[in-house]
């Protein structure tokens, strides 16, 4: 896949891809790294399109080429969101990052009012939580 540019995204270059105020700053203060990555992947895929591979992804089959060649606006390799492909401006990624922002702001509001934060502990809070219903909406369209 020599026509792909590989970007290793981390805090040192994140600002090159997401404006500093793209998400409320509480994302980086209040959420675990996996949850931050979920929100960031939604935004980066919406803004730029491309393929997202989690750093711990190991490709073990040549069948992955069919995933890379899929012309759809959004593709997911399995229900685990470590491997995603989207075209720039994907409506699924747009809805996903919008829902992430709502959830981040809701968390901040509850935290600032000393409310119960247990509802936000699910690992999928910014990943599959907002993504799965969104996928279902567009699945057959």
Automatic annotation (TrEMBL):
InterPro entries from the UniProt entry: AfumC-like_glycosyl_Trfase, Nucleotide-diphossugar_trans
Superkingdom of the organism of origin: Bacteria
Gene3D superfamilies hit by this protein: 3.90.550.20
UniProt cross-references to Pfam families, sorted A to Z: Caps_synth
GO terms for MF: glycosyltransferase activity
Name this polypeptide is given: Capsular polysaccharide synthesis protein
Organism name: Campylobacter jejuni
